[in-house]
Amino acid sequence: MTPRGSDGAGGGRADVVVLSSGHDVADARLHKITGALCRQGLRVDVCGLGDAGAGPAGTRVRTRARGGLASRAWRALTLPWRANASVMFTLDPDLVPMATLAARVRRRRLVVDVHEDYLRLLSDRSWARGAAGAVASGVVRLSNRLAAKADLTVVADGHIPPREARRRLVVENMPDLGLLPSPGTRDATPRAIYIGDLRASRGLFDMLDAVAAAPGWRLDLIGPVAATDVDALHERLQRDDLAGRVDLPGRLPPAEAWKRAEGAWAGLVFLRETPAFREAIPTKLYEYLATGLPFLTTRLPRQVEMVELTGAGVVVDDPADAAEVLRRWADDTAVLDDYRKRAIAWADSHLETSPYDTLATAVADLAR
């Protein structure tokens, strides 16, 4: 375990411990949640994966190596019993069964964050087949039932289960404006950006193909690459049409990742239509709007709705369609300026308050 102390967390027992068996401590939602908890004056511990130095400021962070499925199962079984806080806050479904038991035995309060429809998400994971998939589905179903009985059940969207709970709070994945740069001037060279997990179903190769067919454009892809797509990505980047045009810095803490948005011309959201994504609205859309970035998005229902509501983006049907828009924007920046103005105007009128502060108030009530 790699620790990182923090004056903000203090010594001794914390008010809240945020537990994750699968999330890197650089995860954006984790940073947003803990930032709001700290603003409430709570002492916060974070237990997760990755580099402790990339964890949220003002907290006491402890991390472990990721390992395989067996390592993750062990973390799910043991982390809740090691938590030393008045409130346990879980981020992963496999933690919920043992966290529920630990909370009852140790008389702790339990908050369960359900930020994905995990049953649908399993359909997008290559490992979730056969026996492993059956076990994972069983854990998710059990976790959903137990989550409904927690002291507070947090869901990232209204359609995400459990639909009914003892106390249910919808906390959408809205931006934390403190982690984002203010809208600024564009770079001289056209550059598109994507921040988040990188895999084929999230449009990784579609983004590459679109930029390859838009001469003069560069592309920043910021985030971890799915292991199943690493070889194909490296092969794709070696082709002449993308040589030297794509930057892949890997996973970065949210504020550092979004600093890369300064000077960018456009944001990309090329999710494919899978059961997990059909009803979802990516946080990136809101973050692009908040940073004044026009965006291109695929034809999924709620993303199309955002284009219609904001007037700040364009729906594309395939990489060739996207490339055509990028070429047009490079040739006529006045059109890009219009999209930018609409993005800023919508963000100014819709992103003034943070749902994370509402969540933090509810958690503070449990901790005191």
Give the strand content.
15-25%
- Please tell me how large the radius of gyration is: 21 Å
Distance between the termini: 29 Å
Structural class: alpha/beta
The parts where pLDDT drops under 50 for at least 5 residues are: 6-10
Strand order of the largest sheet: 1-4-3-2-5-6-7-8
Helical content (DSSP H or I, runs of 4+): 25-40%
**SSE string, helix = H, strand = E?**
EEHEEHEHEHHEEEHEHEHEHEHEHHH
Overall CATH architecture of the largest domain: 3-Layer(aba) Sandwich
Mean pLDDT: 93
How many structurally independent domains?
A: 2
General shape: globular
Main beta sheet, described? 8 strands, mixed
Structure summary, number of beta strands: 14
Keywords: Transferase
Protein name: Glycosyltransferase
Organism: Jiangella rhizosphaerae
Pfam families: Glycos_transf_1
Helices, strands, pairings?
Blueprint: E1 2-4, E2 14-24, H1 28-39, E3 44-49, E4 60-64, H2 69-82, E5 85-90, H3 96-106, E6 109-114, H4 118-122, H5 130-147, E7 152-155, E8 168-170, E9 191-195, H6 204-212, E10 218-222, H7 230-237, E11 246-247, H8 254-259, E12 266-269, H9 283-290, E13 295-298, H10 301-310, E14 313-316, H11 319-331, H12 333-350, H13 355-367
Parallel strand pairs: 2-3, 2-5, 3-4, 5-6, 6-7, 7-8, 9-10, 9-12, 10-11, 12-13, 13-14
Antiparallel strand pairs: 1-4
Helix pairs in contact: 1-13, 2-3, 6-11, 9-12, 11-12
